Amino acid sequence: MRRPCAAVRNARSLGASLALLLAPWALVHAETLHNIRAYEAPDHTRVVFDTSAAVEASIFPLSNPDRLVIDLGNTGPAAGFDPDVTGGLGRRVKNMRWGPRQSTYRVVLDLGMPVTRKDFKLPPIAPYGHRLVIDLFDERPAEAAVAKPAKPDGLRPVVIAIDAGHGGEDPGAIGANKVYEKRITLSIARKLAARFNQTPGYRAFLVRTGDYYIPLRRRTEIAHRERAHLFLSIHADAFRNPKVSGASVYMLSESGADSEMARYLAEKENRSDLFGGVSNVSLDDMEPYLRQTLTDLSMQGKRRYSSDVGDEVLRQLNQVTKLHKKQVGHAGFVVLKAPDIPSLLIETGFISNPTEARRLNQAEHQGKIVRAIHQGVVNYWRANPPPGTLLAHRAGSERNHRIQRGDTLSGIAARYGTTVVRIRQANGLAGSRIRVGQVLTIPADS
């Protein structure tokens, strides 16, 4: 049996010769194994087998040492079969081996710990054909983190959930020169979370921290678990016409999309669970609490907040990039259906536009997008601090200063009896650059 890891040390050199040796054997088998892909997430590891048809598989564990055996019936490897699975190797799956065994093709997962598993088959959906999926979970999962109680004074930061769209076997849109949406969104999300975490009064966390897929409704569950005040889903989508470009911001619609583009994007994004590989997916079902909440007053309040935050974010994005839509759009995005958390889906641009794809792949442009989103959110919460937060506590004694032509940070600091450093810290500024119309928070104890 082939041993490609430590991690795929000898696979490349053996690949060609092994394919030649196995070619006659593979011809007598009805089905073909095209690829094996693996993705490690914090709570599970996913192994995906791409096959020419729905194959029958015998899956069983062995111990001393722990391993999982997958025998694919009546199946042979594709010509040049040489999967690169190193990205999915970690603490659960240490190594993978594969090769022919009698009338089957055997794959062995060398495990780093005892696991439980869930396996299921998925029908074809472009760009994928038939898939056999095995999800591996820790047999003794770590205890769930318990939310820290609020301080005695009841103050807590404004919590921002940042969701990098797609991930794992769902690449999202793919632009020219293999620019993958899932990579763009994760890069922007990481930068945005870091910026919020450097801003006093805020805490941001990533819904997806690496290259793996999370079902759409699970993403909002994570935001609830962290008691988020705001949910931001980051995307860089595609359209049929490569000339379409520009950033846009969307919120959940109760009554349908407000444009053809919004409808198209929502339908495309809502199919992510089919790409990402979620068993028993139905895009038409909705949890009972969501059906009820869509007409509840709390949803109405959420929609108002979402719209107002979205307006601020759009105003800031308009200063750093072209806008595709100058008002907050409305569509039925599944990922925005948290019943009581203001939620926005931000299209940072169209990866189907070659020029925009190139810019979105550049750190400098990503930085501009991040600063705009951050400033829009900060502007909104500064004027509307959530009750019980540090921002709300400060609001009673803090002062705001709107930048006028000729203002400088040093001049503003002198006027209010504080320092440039204190103003920078209060507003999350990296330097001394300010712009007309920008609203600065003057520290409360100045």
Describe the structure.
With 446 residues, the chain is α/β, with parallel strands linked by helices. 31% of the residues lie in helices and 25% in strands. The chain has twelve helices and 19 strands. It has helices spanning 11-27, 181-197, 216-225, 260-270, 272-276, 288-293, 297-317, 354-360, 363-383, 390-395, 409-416, 420-427, and strands spanning 31-40, 45-51, 57-62, 67-73, 75-77, 93-101, 104-111, 115-122, 130-138, 158-164, 174-175, 179-180, 202-206, 230-235, 248-252, 329-331, 343-347, 399-402, 439-442. A hairpin with a 4-residue loop joins strand 3 and strand 4 (67-73). Helix 2 (181-197) packs across helix 9 (363-383) and helix 7 (297-317) crosses helix 9.
Short description:
With 446 residues, the protein is α/β, with parallel strands linked by helices. It has helices at residues 11-27, 181-197, 216-225, 260-270, 272-276, 288-293, 297-317, 354-360, 363-383, 390-395, 409-416, 420-427, and strands at 31-40, 45-51, 57-62, 67-73, 75-77, 93-101, 104-111, 115-122, 130-138, 158-164, 174-175, 179-180, 202-206, 230-235, 248-252, 329-331, 343-347, 399-402, 439-442. The protein has a 6-stranded mixed β-sheet, sandwiched between helices. Strands 5-1-2-9-8 form a 5-stranded mixed β-sheet.
Set out the fold topology.
Elements: H1 11-27, E1 31-40, E2 45-51, E3 57-62, E4 67-73, E5 75-77, E6 93-101, E7 104-111, E8 115-122, E9 130-138, E10 158-164, E11 174-175, E12 179-180, H2 181-197, E13 202-206, H3 216-225, E14 230-235, E15 248-252, H4 260-270, H5 272-276, H6 288-293, H7 297-317, E16 329-331, E17 343-347, H8 354-360, H9 363-383, H10 390-395, E18 399-402, H11 409-416, H12 420-427, E19 439-442
Helix pairs in contact: 2-9, 7-9
